[in-house]
UniProtKB/TrEMBL annotation, chains A, B:
UniProt KW Cell inner membrane keyword: no
Organism: Pedococcus dokdonensis
Name listed for the protein in its UniProt record: 3-hydroxypropanoate dehydrogenase
Pfam families in alphabetical order: Nitroreductase
Keywords attached to this entry: Flavoprotein, FMN, NADP, Oxidoreductase
UniProt xrefs under PANTHER family: MALONIC SEMIALDEHYDE REDUCTASE RUTE-RELATED
InterPro entries: Nitroreductase (IPR029479), Nitroreductase-like (IPR000415), Nitroreductase_HadB/RutE (IPR050461), RutE-like (IPR023936)
GO terms of molecular function: oxidoreductase activity
CDD domains for this protein: RutE-like
Residue ranges annotated for the Nitroreductase domain, each copy included: 34-190
Superkingdom of this protein's organism: Bacteria
């Protein structure tokens, strides 16, 4: 199927024709979407976040373990506590975004395995007996889910501003006092304001990333 | 904008209307797509992998650092070496998939920062002086890119079978003898065969994952 790709060079377009995803969806999720550093005042509703979650929850994790947990920082008091933990420039962005989400791995995800992976009875115990494996699996899979979530924000027509520059132990302490969660990213969400981003940065070429053996 | 979502309940559909992504694209990437355990013989071409990479390369990483490296296991000799390192049931799946990709984090990603993040001159040295931070950033960001890649495979109309059950040190040794890479996932890729998957497993509800403060 030949499609039109106005934003692509001829060289790129010959490969894009191998995609089944429509050019509009390619642009919405990948090619035109950008990490936003500034947002309009338009609020992000509960319904929008539900729509995002109900889409991205279907993407795969190991043993369907789904360790991602999301805290929506809605109150000014909680926003203040979060901003305190952010690094440098991230403080200002986190102060002004319409919605800020803290994305963390729940290292007690194994308590849900009986429900989400019911055909393997010993799954919970396997992880209960090995803290290192449990934490590793929580971090790996919740990080996959952070990526799915970022693309889900874009699927809702919003811009995401994911950040890893913060005091992780501080965010864990403030937002997950049970000690069983590890914060992976903080994501600003909203409609991008004018001048929300700089020029696009270069990406590595295929031949710098992909080899065949 | 009201859209039709044949595969959704009325409860889900009211939220899906908040998505800008078309229902067809939602299905292709998330709702109808499944982790495949069996594939047809149809080969996966170089052009298809290029199309996938040229799409997903645009998704965000911290400081645009792009640590993901991909090895396409094309030769029978290399396939044999990989299968040797896979666990249990993954051996058979990895033996028969049309294409298998090893996805790893390059812990020397900082050598590219001068090119991919040129406006911050000290970026390379910041990471060169801190092995722990460098390895952490490589793993976190390459894992995000693994998730983008899985969705990219689906965007090409193919099915992915991502696996984390393998001897990671063994795969690193066999495929990255420089000692600077950490394998994150092995992904089988192809057209799903009949009976490629079991019934869909349950996902956690919104209220089990998302809280607001």
């Amino acid at each position: 199927m030949t499609q039109t790709h106005d934003s692509l060079t001829d060289f790129e377009a010959q490969f894009a024709d191998h995609l089944e995803l429509s050019p509009e969806a390619q642009d919405l999720l990948f090619r035109a979407a950008r990490t936003a550093n500034a947002f309009t005042d338009e609020p992000v509703s509960e319904e929008q976040v539900r729509a995002i979650y109900d889409l991205v929850k279907w993407a795969p994790t190991s043993m369907n373990n789904q360790p991602l947990r999301i805290v929506l920082v809605r109150s000014p008091e909680a926003r203040g506590r979060l901003v305190e933990q952010m690094s440098g420039n991230n403080k200002a962005k986190t102060s002004t975004a319409p919605l800020v989400a803290v994305l963390a791995a729940d290292t007690d995800f194994h308590d849900e395995l009986g429900k989400v992976f019911p055909h393997f009875e010993g799954a919970r115990d396997l992880f209960a007996g090995n803290d290192e494996m449990r934490e590793g699996s929580a971090l790996l899979n919740a990080t996959l889910q952070v990526a799915y979530f970022i693309l889900g924000v874009r699927a809702a027509g919003l811009a995401a501003g994911p950040m890893t520059g913060f005091d992780a132990a501080g965010v864990d302490r403030e937002f997950f006092p049970d000690g069983a969660h590890r914060t992976i990213a903080v994501v600003n969400i909203g409609r991008p304001a004018e001048g929300a981003w700089m020029d696009r940065l270069p990406r590595l070429d295929y031949d710098e990333v992909v080899t065949a053996v």
